[in-house]
Write the C-alpha cells for this entry.
Amino acid sequence: TVSVLYWAHSPHLMPLTPVVILLTVTYGDVATFAGGCFWSLKDQLEGVKGVSSASVGYTGGWVANPSQEDVLRGTTGHVHAVTVLYNSQTVAYKELLWKFMSLHKWWQGDRQGKDVGHHYRSVIYTHNDEQRAVAAEVIAEIQAKFVRYCAAEIAPMGTLYLPELKYYECAG
C-alpha cells in the first residue's frame, strides 16, 4: 500500500484554492527511490519492463504538504523521489534497485551532478523489511564491486507529496 497526497484546484472554491486528495493504492508491488531530478528518473524507470507506472514527489521530510520552493530551499528535509508500481513476477525488486543505482551518481552525497542540495541526495525508501534487507545487500555489493563508498541512504517510506500542478505542466 502506498499513500500519496495530491494537490488539486477545485472549480467550486475560490481560484487557486488547493484541495488535498489522499490516494491509496493497494495493488502491485511498490518501490520508491530518490536520486536527483525526479523527472529524469521517472522517465527512465517507466521504461523498465514490469513497471506499470511511476509518480514523482517529495518524501523523507518533516513538513506536511511541502511546496517545490520549500523543498529547494532545503527547509523541509524532503527529497525529490519517484514511486513506481511494478510486477515482481516480471522484474524483481533487486533488479529494479540495480537499475535505479545505474541511473544516478550513488557515490555523491547531497548532489547529483550540477544539482546541489540535501533534496537531491540518494535514498532508497523501503516499504517493508524484505526491501530493506535487499537494499542493504545491494549497497554492500556496490561497495565491494566498485571499491567506493556508496552515499545512498536506506530509509522507511513515508508519505509522497506530489508536486503542484504547475510543475507537471512544465515537465510535460
User: Anything to note?
Assistant: Strands lie at 2-9, 18-25, 29-34, 51-59, 79-86, 111-112, 115-116, 123-126, 153-156, 160-161. Residues 8 and 19 are 5 Å apart (CA to CA). DSSP finds five helices and ten strands in the chain.
